[in-house]
Design brief:
- Helices cover 42% and strands 16% of the residues.
- It has eleven helices and ten strands.
- It is globular, with a radius of gyration of 17 Å.
- The protein is of the alpha/beta class.
- Helix 5 crosses helix 7.
- The strands form two sheets. An eight-stranded parallel beta sheet has the order 8-7-6-5-4-3-2-9. The protein has a two-stranded antiparallel ribbon with strand order 1-10.
- The longest helix is centred in the N-terminal third of the chain and has 18 residues.
- The chain has a single domain, classed as Aldolase class I (TIM Barrel, Alpha-Beta Barrel).
- The structure holds 1,3-dihydroxyacetonephosphate (13P).
- 1,3-dihydroxyacetonephosphate binds next to strand 9.
Length: 257
């Protein structure tokens, strides 16, 4: 029997100024206090804020000993140097950031992130003691062509090249079918669980946490969290509002497999 602590992650994408992010953090602290969450069995909570919101939100977090962690939505794989506009693992670590998204489909689609750069970013994240959340998932065309498992396996194998067993245990994976992101079309819970079980077999470790992402909302979270292989969510739209995010946090109960 393996018990994995659930994880509920907010991916704010390009939303919220630093002031709005701190206001969200304050409201989240109050709501978590009131509901006594996450408590001993509640989920880990990570807020993936935009870069400009990280310093102020991190400072708030340190001053209020808040019960959540902060993550970055991407990072560069170089340590430092002439890479205009980029942010390094060192810079994130110095701010108290503990996690980073790697290979989100929007980065793959709009910013040329490839399986190769995902691999470099995973290695850079581990080097700087950041826990990466590797995002994988298929397009609608790939799903309709019966290619879901092939695509996800390719993304996994290329991204994880050279990643050690010890690192794989810390790694978090998010299965995000692209056609379900921001569309309101959630993946059928049993089918999401099936794909995630395939990913788990490929990883080969019972402790690795694997999240579902794609139109997760208060009205579908319970069905998704009931699935034995789904350990939590990576949430866009429904994470922007504290009340709706709190409903997701409250529904993220431990999973026993
Ligand atoms: P939505 O929850 O808005 O569909 O976004 C999912 C996502 O991309 C999280 O990374």
């Amino acid at each position: 029997m393996t018990q994995r602590r659930p994880l509920m992650a907010a991916n704010w994408k390009m939303n919220k100024t630093h002031r709005e992010a701190v206001a969200f953090a304050e409201a989240l602290d109050d709501a978590l206090d009131e509901k006594q969450l996450p408590g001993a069995t509640g989920p880990d909570i990570v807020l993936f804020a935009p870069f400009t919101a990280l310093p102020a939100t991190s400072e708030h977090r340190l001053n209020c000993s808040s019960a959540w962690h902060l993550g970055a939505q991407t990072m560069d794989f170089h340590d430092s140097g002439a890479y205009t506009g980029e942010i390094s693992g060192d810079m994130l670590q110095a701010l108290g950031i503990t996690s980073v998204l790697v290979g989100h489909s929007e980065r793959r689609q709009y910013y040329n992130e490839t399986d190769e750069t995902c691999n470099k970013k995973l290695h850079a994240a581990f080097k700087h003691n950041l826990i990466p959340i590797l995002c994988v998932g298929e397009t609608l065309e790939e799903r309709e062509a019966g290619q879901t498992d092939v695509v996800v396996m390719r993304q996994m194998r290329m991204a994880l090249d050279g990643v050690t067993t010890q690192q794989r245990e810390q790694l978090v994976i998010a299965y995000e079918p692209i056609w379900a992101i921001g569309t309101g079309k959630v993946c059928d819970a049993a089918e999401a669980n099936r794909t995630i079980a395939v990913i788990r077999r490929e990883i080969g470790l019972a402790h690795t946490r694997i999240l579902y992402g794609g139109s997760m909302k208060p009205d579908n979270v319970a069905e998704l969290m009931k699935q034995p292989d789904i350990d939590g969510g990576l949430v866009g739209g429904a994470s922007l509002d504290v009340d709706s995010f709190m409903q997701l946090v409250a529904a993220a109960v431990p999973v026993t497999a």
